[in-house]
């Protein structure tokens, strides 16, 4: 990717591989990696489940928007975004203006297998099954599609292969 002063945002449903892929992609592109969820938890001194429980989902979504605003002052990072960041049109607009947005996808069963042991997923509390995951994914699909420049399926692929595919697709975007 030639234009390294723009961000690369990784979006997608929980469990699609954003954290692992952002780390590898950052290494390959020699860019720092930021994670919106980590930035929020560090700034608030609370875990995401605690924020949801104490302040509610709307408050957390406000924090996501505020975090994107802060990131707009920086240049050239890989940014791993929380799964629900696309739920606000303002966030979609900001990400698209600040860089390239890569949607990572996975089948509901794949997501379930990846997150079933994780107790830090407040939206899955009491609903940790592939059917519920598919319902949530379907509700968010149009927002993910509106936000993204590129879409890459992560099922049955290595992190390295996914990163290579992203880099290839980013190059194609720049050439158009």
UniProtKB/TrEMBL annotation:
Q: Where does ATP bind?
A: 15-20, 121
List where in the cell it is found.
Cytoplasm
Q: Report the co-factor binding details.
A: Binds 1 Mg(2+) ion per subunit.
Signal sequence annotation: none
List of residues binding substrate: 37, 61, 83, 140
The family database entries (Gene3D superfamilies) matched by this protein are listed as: P-loop containing nucleotide triphosphate hydrolases
What GO MF annotations does this protein's record show? ATP binding; magnesium ion binding; shikimate kinase activity
GO BP: any one term: chorismate biosynthetic process
- CDD domains the UniProt entry points to: SK
SUPFAM superfamilies, per this entry?
P-loop containing nucleoside triphosphate hydrolases
Q: Which reaction does it catalyse?
A: shikimate + ATP = 3-phosphoshikimate + ADP + H(+)
Q: In which pathway does it act?
A: Metabolic intermediate biosynthesis; chorismate biosynthesis; chorismate from D-erythrose 4-phosphate and phosphoenolpyruvate: step 5/7
What is the stated purpose of this protein? Catalyzes the specific phosphorylation of the 3-hydroxyl group of shikimic acid using ATP as a cosubstrate.
Could you identify this protein by its name? Shikimate kinase
What is the species listed in this Swiss-Prot or TrEMBL entry? Aminipila butyrica
């Amino acid at each position: 990717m030639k234009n390294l002063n723009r961000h690369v945002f990784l979006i997608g449903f929980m469990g699609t591989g954003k954290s692992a892929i952002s780390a590898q992609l950052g290494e390959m592109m020699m860019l720092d990696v930021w994670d919106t969820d980590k930035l929020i938890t560090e700034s608030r001194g609370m875990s995401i489940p605690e924020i949801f429980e104490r302040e509610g989902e709307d408050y957390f979504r406000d924090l996501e928007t505020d975090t994107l605003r802060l990131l707009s002052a920086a240049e050239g990072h890989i940014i791993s975004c929380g799964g629900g960041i696309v739920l606000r049109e303002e966030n979609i607009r900001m990400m698209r203006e600040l860089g390239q947005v890569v949607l990572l996808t996975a089948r509901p069963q794949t997501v379930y297998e990846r997150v079933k042991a994780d107790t830090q997923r407040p939206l899955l509390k009491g609903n940790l099954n592939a059917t519920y995951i598919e319902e949530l994914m379907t509700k968010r699909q149009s927002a993910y599609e509106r936000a993204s420049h590129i879409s890459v399926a992560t099922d049955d692929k290595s992190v390295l292969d996914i990163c290579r595919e992203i880099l290839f697709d980013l190059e194609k975007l720049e050439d158009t």
